[in-house]
Design goal:
By secondary structure, the chain is of the alpha/beta class. It is built from 22 helices and 25 strands. The protein starts with a helix and ends in an 11-residue tail after the last strand.
């Protein structure tokens, strides 16, 4: 028997290895695993992998446990989708609240249960990919809410945005997500557009550099280690310049400007390793972006070498037939989209209901279907989901929104706040006897968090009023009056604000806008809010955020009345703007003693603003978009250069891109420009000549004096945020590669 057993054991081992599919062998190459699994799949199973249904109805909360819903079981039996979107999303659109939604630990349990059910109840046991919104924090309950993208861009700080990306990725991944939607790389040059807040602003270099760092932070160096997620770049392409500022409307743009400005940040982020990308709702030169084969296949894959997969935006495949009317049916739209290079249908219905019939009718080819499925499976294998599909709920509870992440959110808010005016009022003395804090955004937490934000516990969010209370001693009298709302005028009590100001030594007026959705808001199928004509007793604050386009940039409601009244009493006034787009700052610029722009500064925004108000932090934020004097100036982005005056006044913006003040002063000197091989080295000194330590943001612009085609008269090419102590001189260098000086000539 002893002589027989080794032979039997060897035969058993060989049989076991033969029986195990290659796709389940972690030692096999990704290419071989994909090919093996693809060969085993039916057409319906393949189509399922390309569908990404909405996810928040896929679980049921039962006390401290979470189970899969009957809707999920039915969906998996009928369609077996391979991707889900926004399972953990909570907001008025999803109807998930602090009570009905999930905390981080329950979120991890929920996504584990979804994975377990599909692995154990499907023929091939293919794990899910879970995609979540992550542009300024994971859009889920109990996560860290970072400042929105305009504030991120105002930092002009590569390393800080990388660190923020790492933190967001960790929180999402620990809860079971695999894909983070972000960054948004749309070049935004019309502040009437409702989604400007989601962007890094008007410049392609700033957007591309910071976006690439965000991608690196989200994805890390080892996607299998369980701390990172795949990044999804949004929205491809030229989505930030819609006609009339109307969300989703066509981009009227030439090919050269399209490639030079609007595609450039995407190319940079793809070179940084981004693995997924999302199409946009608009059309470019008459072709819907979601069915544009030239951009999605010839350029994205052929010219740029993109090796990840492409999402449609929610409902954008159906929109090819219903909005753009370039297809006669959803079936034709789905066929055009797959052929163009869109792999995953966000929403899922267009592909799920039509691709099988389209294949039977010869509208698409089997090879096109297989290519799309292969790209999805490849990312699942590369993340290690077949071996490690589950996460630890206890880790999610312990690490999500930890002290380091909260401190990081505060630092992004501090660095992203821009000081626009200061008549020697700031920083305020902490010995001041009394302060009036007034305005609709002084103590409204959701107005400072921006769109794509989940409900959060009140104690987790620091308003401006909270921040000032935290910064000063209890002996200082604080007089808070809301005074008015953002839009509604039935609640205004400006007299009370004036009375508070009169009995105070200084006034802090916090005004601006809001992207705060509420449960009275109407939504379209894509989740965008709808401006309603319904009569309501109280008009909500929301005037920005997806779907809320503007035809003016005025401060709404009674906010101008409030500011005018405050300026008339003779007390020093600091105006703080919390907003999602550059609103009318003319009055504040003219009459305020100090003016701060904080965009939407996130959960630690109140502490960050107080740090700046009282000199605990020296501001150095710079504008990522130009601030117009009026809507009639639009577009007013900086790279147009100087323009002729209007009959009615100036053509220059009120504040230009790149502008921002400090509590200290800097002097530039000893500039040298040296040619080295195929590089140009620009070196110079910066001296802090003021009385405080501080950051300076050095910005390198070029002008091409003679070129074969028109080029902008001024273009940002590089930047660096650097800390310099008072009296200190630092020597800084920029290196321009020849590739940074290239242009698209007449032959493109």
């Amino acid at each position: 028997m002893k002589k027989v057993l080794p032979g039997i054991f060897a035969i058993f081992m060989v049989a076991s290895l033969v029986a195990q599919p290659i796709y389940k062998n972690p030692e096999a190459t990704t290419e071989n695993r994909v090919a093996d699994l693809l060969a085993r799949m039916t057409t319906r199973e393949k189509i399922g992998q390309l569908c990404a249904p909405l996810g928040w109805e896929m679980y049921e909360k039962q006390g401290d446990e979470v189970v899969v819903s009957d809707k999920y079981k039915k969906l998996m039996a009928e369609s077996n989708p391979g991707v889900f979107w926004a399972v953990l999303r909570a907001d008025p659109w999803t109807q998930k609240t602090l009570r009905t939604g999930l905390n981080p630990g329950l979120s991890a349990k929920a996504l584990n249960e979804l994975q377990r059910y599909t692995i154990e109840n499907s023929r091939l046991g293919i794990p899910l990919l879970i995609a979540e919104e992550c542009a300024h924090g994971h859009m889920a309950i109990g996560t860290t809410v970072f400042p929105t993208s305009l504030a991120q861009a105002s930092t002009f700080n590569r390393e800080l945005i990388f660190q923020m990306g790492e933190a967001i990725a960790l929180e999402a991944r620990l809860q079971g997500a695999h894909i983070g939607y972000g960054p948004i790389l749309d070049i935004a040059r019309d502040p009437r557009w409702s989604r400007m807040e989601e962007t890094f602003g008007e410049d392609p270099v700033l957007t591309g550099v910071l976006g690439s760092e965000f991608v690196k932070g989200l994805q890390g160096n080892d996607i299998k280690e369980g701390r990172h997620v795949y990044s999804t770049l949004k929205h491809f392409a030229a989505y930030g310049i819609p006609v009339g500022g109307h969300n989703g409307q066509p981009a009227q743009i030439g090919t050269r400007e399209l490639f030079s400005d609007h595609l450039a940040p995407f190319r940079m982020a793809i070179e940084a390793g981004a693995k997924t990308i999302m199409t946009s709702y608009n059309s470019v030169d008459g072709i819907p972006s979601t069915s544009n084969r030239y951009l999605l296949t010839d350029v994205l894959r052929g010219q740029w070498g993109f090796d990840g997969f492409v999402f449609s935006d929610l409902g954008s495949i159906e929109g090819i037939a219903t909005s753009h009317r370039t297809a006669s049916s959803i079936k034709e739209a789905a066929s055009l989209t797959l052929h163009a290079g869109v792999d995953v249908d966000l929403g899922g219905n267009a592909y799920d209901r039509n691709l099988e019939q389209a294949l039977a009718e010869g509208l698409i080819r089997e090879e096109e279907l297989d290519s799309a499925v292969s790209r999805v499976l490849k990312l699942k294998f590369e993340m290690g989901l077949f071996e490690n599909p589950y996460v630890d709920p206890e880790k999610a509870n312990q690490i999500v929104r930890n002290e380091y992440h909260k401190a990081l959110a505060r630092e992004v808010a501090r660095q992203g706040t821009v000081l626009l005016k200061n008549k020697q009022l700031l920083p305020l003395s902490k010995d001041v006897k009394s302060i009036a804090i007034v305005g609709p955004n002084a103590d409204n937490i959701y107005n400072q968090l921006g769109d794509y934000t989940a409900p959060q516990e009140r104690d987790n969010i620091i308003s401006v009023l909270d921040g000032i209370k935290n910064a000063v001693s209890k002996n200082i009298k604080l007089h808070y009056v809301k005074a008015c709302a953002i839009r509604d005028t039935t609640q205004s009590d400006i007299a009370a604000a004036v009375a508070a100001a009169r009995q105070s030594d200084v006034v802090v007026a916090v005004v601006g806008g809001s992207s705060a959705r509420d449960f009275k808001t109407d939504y379209v199928g894509t989740g965008a809010a709808v401006v309603s004509d319904k009569r309501v007793d109280i008009i909500p604050d929301m005037e920005s955020g997806e779907g809320y386009d503007r035809n003016s940039l005025s401060l709404l409601g009674d906010q101008l009345k409030l500011l005018d009244a405050l300026f008339g009493i003779g007390k020093p006034v600091v105006v703080v703007c919390i907003q999602g787009r550059p609103l009318d700052m003319n009055l504040a610029s003219e009459k305020a003693d100090a003016l701060l722009n904080a965009w939407y500064p996130g959960e630690e925004g109140g502490n960050a603003i107080a740090d700046i108000l009282f000199g605990d932090y020296n501001p150095a934020g710079r504008l990522p978009v130009s601030v117009p004097r009026s809507v009639g100036q639009l577009p007013v982005y900086y790279s147009q250069g100087e323009q002729n005056k209007y009959v009615e006044g100036e053509s220059a913006p009120l504040y230009s891109f790149g502008f921002g003040l400090s509590y200290t002063q800097f002097e530039y000197s000893h500039l040298t420009i040296e040619r080295q091989d195929e590089k140009t080295l620009i070196t110079f000194n910066i001296t802090n000549t003021g009385e405080r330590d501080g950051d300076e943001v050095a910005q390198l612009y070029i002008r091409d004096n003679v070129s074969s085609v028109f080029t902008p008269p001024i273009q940002l090419k590089d930047f660096e945020r650097i800390h310099i102590r008072r009296g200190e001189t630092k020597r800084l260098s920029f290196t321009l590669n020849d590739s940074q000086l290239t242009l698209f000539n007449q032959a493109m």
